[in-house]
Design goal:
Helix 6 crosses helix 7. The two termini are 38 Å apart. This protein is an alpha+beta fold and 597 residues long. It contains 13 helices and 25 strands. It is elongated and about 105 Å long. 38% of the residues lie in helices and 25% in strands. GO terms for molecular function: ATP binding; ATP-dependent protein folding chaperone. Belongs to the heat shock protein 70 family. Keywords: ATP-binding, Coiled coil, Nucleotide-binding.
C-alpha cells in the first residue's frame, strides 16, 4: 500500500554544494533524500551552455560534456556567489547568483517530480563562513529559481541536526553532548562545535575557510601531472589547452576518489596533449604528500574553533564527518590522532547529512513534524562600524549566538555637524580596509552642536538567517528620535536585476526541455554505436558479412560513426535521430541476424 501523501505544501531542504547538490524532504515523519532523474542521490553543481547560448544543461548532462566544452561549462559558482567576476563581459551577462539559481531550480524540479506537486518553500544551506553578502546572494538565487527561501542555515549545523536525530534512536532523548562537525566539501571547509541536547542544537563556535575543499586536492594533482608531462615529454605547457585540462581534471578527480579505497591507481588519458598518451601510476602516499599542507591547515582550523568554544579535545564526544572529501583515509587518520584515538562518527552519510538536516528544519517550519527541533546558531565573523579613523569598532563579536541585537554609541567629530555616515563592515582585522564592506548610509538632520555633544546610537540586528539590519538614531534627551534602517545586504543584485533573472529563468524552461531531449538523443546514438562496435568486433557479427570487402566497409563505417559523433557535439535532436536511423538501416539487418541486439 502506497504511503499517504500530506496535502499540505512540503518544504524541501537543499544542500547547494560547490561540487554536488542534494535535496531532501520529510514525508510521514521521515526525512528522505530525493534521487534525480538519473537515479543518483546527489547532482553535480554544473551548468553548461551551447556555443550559441541557445541551450542549457544542468547537473549530470552538464558535467558529462565538460571536458569537451570547457569554456562554456561552469562549476564552483558557489565560490563566487556574493562576489563579482573579474571579467566585465561575464559579469554583465551572467552572475554567480544566476548559475546557483539554475542549480536550485534543478533541485526544485527533482523534488516536484518525486512529490507530484509544486514546491515553493525551501531551507537552503550555506557554509558557516559565508558572510552577509553571500547569504543574501543565496536568497536572491532562490528567488530567481522561484523558491521561497524560508531559512538559510549553516551546513555543519544542518549536519548536526541529522546526527542528533540519528543518535536519538540510540540514546536517551535528554542526553547532552558536545560534538564537532568537520565539513570538508568540494569547495568549502567548515568546523562547528555544538552542544546537542535531544532536539536542541546550540552552536558554540564555528570556523572555516570558504576557499578550501576537494577541488583544491584535484588542483594539486593536476599541477603534479602538468609538471610531469613537461619534464617527461618536453612538450609545450599543457596549461594553455583548456580541453586537455578539462580531461585531466576529470581523471584527477576520479583518481582522488579511487585512492580512498585503493593504495594506488593508474591515470590513463589517450592523446591528452600534442600526441602524448598519459599513463602513470599514482599512489595514495604521493597524493597525501601533495596535499599534506592542506590537510594540516584543516586541523589548525579545528584547534582554533575548539579554542573559541573554550573546550578541550577530551570534551568532544563525537567528531561528525560531512562532505565527500572526508572519505580521504589520511584525513581520517590525522583527525583520529588529533582526538587521541577517537574514531570519527560513521552514523551519517557525508554526502547527504546536510540536505537531511535542512529538510528536518524545513519540516519544523511547515508545522509538519519535528516541531520540537530548536536551533541556535552563531555569527561566523565580527560585525561593526567604521570610526572616523578607519578603525573597525566591533559591535557584534564573532561566534555570538543569533538572532541577536547589539548597539554602540558614537559622537560627532565636527562642530555643528548635521549628518553622520555609517559604514558597516564584517571581519576580524583592526582596520576596516582589511575587512568586508557590507554597506553604508547617511543619517541626516541630526541636531547641530559642538563636537562630541550629539550622540548617535548604531544598532546591528542579525536575524535567524544571519541577514543583517542596521539602524541609526540620534539620542538627545527630550528630542524626538530619528532613525534610518538599512537592509542593503543584497549581494550584487538590484531588485530589477532579480526580476529580470526570474523572467529569464522562466523563459529558458522550454529551452531546457529541448536541450534535455537533444542530450537523450545523443546518448541513445552513442549507446547504439558502442553496442554495435562491441557486437561486430568482439562477437560474431562480422561473420554475417559475406566477403572481406564488406567486412572492411563495416569497420570503416563504425570508425566514421565515432568520428561523426566527436565532430557533432552540438547537433540537434533531429540530427542525432536521423543519424541513428541511418546507422540502423545499415547495421541492424546484420546484427539481428547475429542476434546481438
Amino acid at each position: 500500500m502506497a504511503p499517504e501523501v500530506d496535502v499540505r505544501e512540503e518544504v524541501i531542504g537543499i544542500d547547494l554544494g560547490t561540487t554536488n547538490s542534494c535535496v531532501a524532504v520529510v514525508r510521514n515523519g521521515t526525512a528522505e533524500i530525493i534521487a534525480n532523474d538519473q537515479g543518483h542521490r546527489t547532482t553535480p553543481s554544473f551548468v553548461a551552455f551551447s556555443a550559441a547560448d541557445s541551450e542549457r544543461l544542468i547537473g549530470e548532462a552538464a558535467k558529462k560534456q565538460a571536458a569537451l566544452n570547457p569554456r562554456r561549462t561552469i562549476f564552483d559558482a558557489k565560490r563566487l556567489i556574493g562576489k563579482k567576476f573579474n571579467d566585465p563581459e561575464v559579469q554583465r551577462d551572467l552572475s554567480p547568483e544566476q548559475i546557483s539559481a539554475m542549480i536550485l531550480g534543478k533541485m526544485k524540479e527533482t523534488a516536484e517530480s518525486y512529490l507530484g506537486q509544486p514546491v515553493s518553500g525551501a531551507v537552503v544551506t550555506v557554509p558557516a563562513y559565508f558572510n552577509d553578502r553571500q547569504r543574501q546572494a543565496t536568497k536572491d538565487a532562490g528567488r530567481i529559481a522561484n523558491l521561497n527561501v524560508l531559512r538559510i542555515i549553516n551546513e555543519p549545523t544542518a549536519a548536526a541536526i541529522a546526527y542528533g536525530l540519528n543518535s536519538l534512536h540510540r540514546k536517551s532523548k535528554h542526553t547532552k553532548s558536545k560534538i564537532l562537525v568537520y565539513d570538508l566539501g568540494g569547495g568549502t571547509f567548515d568546523v562547528s562545535v555544538l552542544e546537542v541536547d535531544g532536539q536542541d542544537f546550540r552552536v558554540l563556535a564555528t570556523g572555516g575557510d570558504a576557499h578550501l575543499g576537494g577541488g583544491d586536492f584535484d588542483q594539486r594533482l593536476m599541477e603534479y601531472f602538468i609538471r610531469l608531462i613537461k619534464r617527461k615529454f618536453c612538450k609545450e605547457d599543457i596549461s594553455e589547452d583548456k580541453k586537455a585540462l578539462g580531461r585531466l581534471r576529470k581523471e584527477c578527480e576520479t583518481a582522488k576518489r579511487d585512492l580512498s579505497n585503493q593504495s594506488q591507481v593508474r591515470v590513463e588519458i589517450e592523446s591528452l596533449f600534442q600526441g602524448v598518451d598519459l599513463s602513470e601510476t599514482l599512489t595514495r602516499a604521493k597524493f597525501n604528500e601533495l596535499n599534506l599542507d592542506l590537510f594540516k591547515k584543516t586541523l589548525e582550523v579545528v584547534e582554533a574553533t575548539l579554542k573559541d568554544a573554550k573546550l578541550g579535545k577530551s570534551e568532544i564526544e563525537e567528531v561528525v564527518l560531512v562532505g565527500g572529501s572526508t572519505r580521504i583515509p589520511k584525513l581520517r587518520e590525522m583527525l583520529k590522532e588529533m582526538f587521541d584515538g577517537k574514531e570519527p562518527c560513521k552514523g551519517v552519510n557525508p554526502d547527504e547529512a546536510v540536505a537531511y538536516g535542512a529538510a528536518v528544519f524545513g519540516s519544523k517550519l511547515s508545522d509538519h513534524v519535528h516541531a520540537g527541533v530548536t536551533l541556535v546558531d552563531v555569527t561566523p565573523l565580527s560585525l561593526g562600524i567604521e570610526d572616523a579613523y578607519g578603525l573597525m569598532k566591533v559591535i557584534i563579536p564573532r561566534n555570538t549566538p543569533v538572532p541577536t541585537k547589539m548597539s554602540m554609541e558614537f559622537s560627532t567629530n565636527e562642530d555643528q555637524q548635521t549628518s553622520m555616515s555609517t559604514k558597516v563592515f564584517q571581519g576580524e582585522r583592526p582596520l576596516t580596509k582589511d575587512c568586508i564592506h557590507l554597506g553604508k548610509f547617511v543619517l541626516s538632520d541630526i541636531t547641530p552642536a559642538p563636537r562630541g555633544v550629539t550622540i548617535v546610537e548604531d544598532t546591528l540586528e542579525i536575524d535567524e538567517d544571519g541577514i543583517l539590519k542596521v539602524t541609526s538614531r540620534e539620542k538627545i534627551p527630550g528630542a524626538k528620535s530619528k532613525s534610518l534602517t538599512i537592509t542593503s545586504y543584497k549581494g550584487n543584485l538590484t531588485q530589477n536585476q532579480i526580476k529580470r533573472m526570474i523572467k529569464e529563468a522562466k523563459e529558458m524552461a522550454e529551452q531546457d526541455k529541448i536541450a534535455r531531449a537533444c542530450v537523450d538523443a545523443r546518448i541513445e546514438l552513442e549507446s547504439y554505436i558502442y553496442d554495435a562496435k562491441n557486437a561486430f568486433l568482439t562477437g560474431d557479427g562480422l561473420e554475417q558479412v559475406g566477403d572481406k570487402r564488406g567486412k572492411v566497409e563495416i569497420i570503416c563505417s563504425m570508425r566514421a560513426a565515432s568520428g561523426w559523433l566527436d565532430a557533432n557535439q552540438g547537433a540537434t535532436r533531429e540530427v542525432y535521430e536521423k543519424k541513428l536511423n541511418e546507422l540502423r538501416g545499415v547495421w541492424d539487418p546484420i546484427l539481428i541476424t547475429a542476434k546481438k541486439i
